[in-house]
């Protein structure tokens, strides 16, 4: 039988001839023309972007009901070939299935295969519980299964990796694996998904596998092998310190290497589809999203100017950074509102932070706090200065607009909650000002309780929860789990910030956790020792947060929990190598990589761009 022709649409999903696909292709073609003209003139319409998201949703609906290649392909992964998937027959192994799941996730297209991936993971979990030899006796498969199952919310214990906890046992029992870089790499990745400081097995695996991988790099054992790039990347950038969309781009552009390393598409039930077709889907998905990102960034740039925020001489202009953090993590087309809110409030919190740090007098700061506390009755107060008027008006207008939209989505008024978030932030910032003026030195506990709020993630993350799909009742907002998720995320971010910015803050007369720790030890502890000591609570907060996010029980819906984790990753990404706002040239390149620059495929894959785009 001839293989069906895969047609790639502007919505990034292939469609086969079906009763609705002709109309859909016509609609997509008109959309591409609509977006092309404004782009050429530098002013793509917001209506066109909304239609992009609508088309993505429509195409997904068509996939679910039509007989088309993407449905055939995913059915081949799970449903139609369930017997071979279940039994591992016909050359299909658990390792291959897990590698397939990993590649789809790494390319940013796993959401199109959600049902099929769940089928594979459910069966893998069943085998895990039965301690199936196919998983447990192969180091690479065991480590990969543990990592993927845990990150997808399955209850797997790290105790199952006890047999490789020590390098000496690994060497004497499976000495051939010491030269198996792929197994070492999978073990190292698995060690990073720790959810408790009591998982000493993962700590041990992470330590010795990292040492062996570094030794392979130093010795030149990986020289001129495709795997060297992945090893270097895994050692330098643990998964919790990466932005998803940058990772997707990297994996798409290095797709040949992915296949060389995994051989994931060689399973017999996928043989009717070529690697190029999988790559084409990833390319189309990533490239189509860039149209949306470009328009959103133009909209945000206009908002900054309309709000006169660019006229404030003290304010850092970091819109692109915040949009990078939004598009880099909340990347799917339908979450445009969440990205825009995330970026707007990121800009506003930075402006307010700068106003409290260097831009405003005490009288101006007190005036701003009072205006926000009054909110709809702010007209009873005068603006102390034009700067106060600009800052307050930007907050007031944006919060009311976003609150009205969120209230429609949630079927209840949530604007009051958004205002309360801003009141809490400004009051905590005012507390820091009072400490600085009075030269009061808080205890470490006092400092961190307040500083977690002044890190200003509240106005960015908490309102965004209303825009990711689930209905959030008032009882959820008051639930201890909701507050703990926020506390862990904010504390982790604040401590990461403190470790990198203690010198600047010391010069500004501000205390932070590093300087407080040195002070409390009577000067016997050095700055570097204090920084290392603070890494411990950072690791604890990260692990506890991931544990809460992955736990199936709880009041907070999983899509909302994931936003807390995404922001934690953003904090690691921006602060793991220095101050968040340092290295402007590097950050500009990363913004371009997500938003503007076309994909650069290598070798024989380069010709695919002319066909797909």
From TrEMBL:
GO terms for biological process: defense response; diterpenoid biosynthetic process. The keyword Lyase applies. Transmembrane segments: none annotated. The lineage of its organism: Eukaryota, Viridiplantae, Streptophyta, Embryophyta, Tracheophyta. It comes from Digitaria exilis. GO terms for molecular function: magnesium ion binding; terpene synthase activity. Coiled coil: none annotated. Residues 305-544 form the Terpene synthase metal-binding domain. Belongs to the terpene synthase family. Residues 1-29, 70-96 are annotated as: Disordered. Its cofactor is Mg(2+). Residues 90-235 form the Terpene synthase N-terminal domain. Gene3D superfamilies: Farnesyl Diphosphate Synthase (1.10.600.10), Terpene synthase, N-terminal domain (1.50.10.130). Keywords: Lyase, Magnesium, Metal-binding, Plant defense. This is Uncharacterized protein. Residues 77-96 have a biased composition (Polar residues).
């Amino acid at each position: 039988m001839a293989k069906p022709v895969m047609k790639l649409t502007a919505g990034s999903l292939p469609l086969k001839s079906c009763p609705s696909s002709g109309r859909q292709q016509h609609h997509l073609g008109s959309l591409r023309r609509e977006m092309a003209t404004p782009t050429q003139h530098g002013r793509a319409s917001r209506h066109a972007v909304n239609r992009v998201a609508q088309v993505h949703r429509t195409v997904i609906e068509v996939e679910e009901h039509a007989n088309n290649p993407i449905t055939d392909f995913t059915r081949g992964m799970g449903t139609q070939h369930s017997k071979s998937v279940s039994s591992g027959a016909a050359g299909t192994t658990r390792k291959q299935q897990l590698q397939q799941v990993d590649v789809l996730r790494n390319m940013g297209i796993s959401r199109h295969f959600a049902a099929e991936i769940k089928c594979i993971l459910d069966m893998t979990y069943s085998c895990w519980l039965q301690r199936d030899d196919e998983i447990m006796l192969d180091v690479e498969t065991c480590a990969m299964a543990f990592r993927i199952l845990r990150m997808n919310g399955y209850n797997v214990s790290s105790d199952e990796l006890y047999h490789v906890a020590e390098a000496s046992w690994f060497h004497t029992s499976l000495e051939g694996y010491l030269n198996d870089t792929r197994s070492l790499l999978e073990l190292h990745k698995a060690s990073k998904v720790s959810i408790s400081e009591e998982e000493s097995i993962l700590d041990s695996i992470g330590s010795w596998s990292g040492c062996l991988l570094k030794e392979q790099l130093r010795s030149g054992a990986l020289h001129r092998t495709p795997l060297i790039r992945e090893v270097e990347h895994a050692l330098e950038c643990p998964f919790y310190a990466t932005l998803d969309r940058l990772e997707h781009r990297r994996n798409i552009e290095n797709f040949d290497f992915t296949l060389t390393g995994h051989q994931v598409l060689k399973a017999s039930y996928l043989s009717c589809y070529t690697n190029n077709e999988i790559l084409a889907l990833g390319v189309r998905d990533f490239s189509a999203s860039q149209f949306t990102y470009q328009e959103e960034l133009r909209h945000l740039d206009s908002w900054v100017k309309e709000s006169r925020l660019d006229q404030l001489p003290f304010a850092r202009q970091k819109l692109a950074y915040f949009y990078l953090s939004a598009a880099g993590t909340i990347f799917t087309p339908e979450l445009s509102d969440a990205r825009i809110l995330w970026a707007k409030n990121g800009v506003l919190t930075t402006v307010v932070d700068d106003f409290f740090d260097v831009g405003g007098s005490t009288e101006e700061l007190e005036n701003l706090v009072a205006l926000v506390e009054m909110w709809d009755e702010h007209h009873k107060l005068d603006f102390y200065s034009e700067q106060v008027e600009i800052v307050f008006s930007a907050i007031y207008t944006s919060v009311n607009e976003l609150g009205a939209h969120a209230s429609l989505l949630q079927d209840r008024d949530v604007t009051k909650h958004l205002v309360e978030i801003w009141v809490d932030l400004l009051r905590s910032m005012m507390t820091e000002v009072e400490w600085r003026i009075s030269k009061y030195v808080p205890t470490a506990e006092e400092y961190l309780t307040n500083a977690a709020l002044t890190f200003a993630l509240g106005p960015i993350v908490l309102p965004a929860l209303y825009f990711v799909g689930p209905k959030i009742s008032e009882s959820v907002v008051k639930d201890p789990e909701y507050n703990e998720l926020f506390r862990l995320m904010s504390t982790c971010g604040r401590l990461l910030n403190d470790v990198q910015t203690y010198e600047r803050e010391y010069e500004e007369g501000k205390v932070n956790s590093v300087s407080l720790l040195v002070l409390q030890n009577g000067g016997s502890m050095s700055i570097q020792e204090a920084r290392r000591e603070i890494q411990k609570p950072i690791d604890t907060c990260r692990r506890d947060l991931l544990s809460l996010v992955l736990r199936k029980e709880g009041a907070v819906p999983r899509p909302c929990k994931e936003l807390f984790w995404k922001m934690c990753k953003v904090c690691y990404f921006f602060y793991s190598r220095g101050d968040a706002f340092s290295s402007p040239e590097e950050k500009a390149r990363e913004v371009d990589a997500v938003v503007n620059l076309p994909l650069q495929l290598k070798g024989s894959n380069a010709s695919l761009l002319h066909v797909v785009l």
